[in-house]
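seq:
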Amino acid sequence: MRLTSVLLVLITVTACGNGGGTASSPPPAPTPSALFTPPPVAFDEAAGIAARDGRGGRVTRLHLYGPQPPIVWLAAVLGGDGVLAELRVDATTGKVVDRQAADPEAAGTAAHLVAGDEIGVAGAREAAAKAVPGGWITAAGLEERRGGVVWAMEAVDPARRTRKIEVDAATAATRIVP
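struct:
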């Protein structure tokens, strides 16, 4: 009985990698976050879906959100009627899964920012993509900075680092934010 117990302990310790036998294999690498893998519905497609569902309005904000599935694009679209719609676009299927009107104060702020935007979300994406070659865009939002309107963008570069980019909404000039 005692020999059986000793053998059982020896087998258990060896199987766990502490028994002096061959070195155990290293633990598997962590699975990359879903936000570091481009979703099936890319930024441009999500922006188009949001604009169409927002009654042909102007996208003022679009960012990928998904600490866990389902991953969605969160969008804000200022419609021609002055209503700011907040949408959730499924990043896998492209379906709008939620839509609601934002408060009127947010709509007023968005209208002010859109008035200073000459390039739109597509122009901002194009400029940001040139600033981070091989990367993909995960977020964009119109903001007022230093007295002007900019698109505050985020991109994931080929090395899977998040890069922040400011794109001037009037000229499309870019600046990588440290």
